[in-house]
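We read letters as residues; the fold follows as tokens. Both lines appear below.
***
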Amino acid sequence: MSFDGAVIERQDGTFAVVAVKLHVLGYSGTCEEMAAKYAPFFPEMPIVLMSQDANGVPKYCGNSDCVAYLTELGASAIPWQTYTSVPQEELALR
């Protein structure tokens, strides 16, 4: 599995942001299901999903405090990296 994501550290806690396709953000149930799939990569962290519309405007789905922080921070300041490894919980089973 390969995806783009970032871990954001701030004074009141750490959370993750994951880039997804825009259609995922159209349905709240889909957002929750998709965030749950990334949870093994970011244990015990809230996960915000992010996409951009056709004009490049970022759209977010997740914890409202985290979304507000990302909106203020700006998408270009997110420290993106590509994740290609297996989740930590799978490593523990090996």
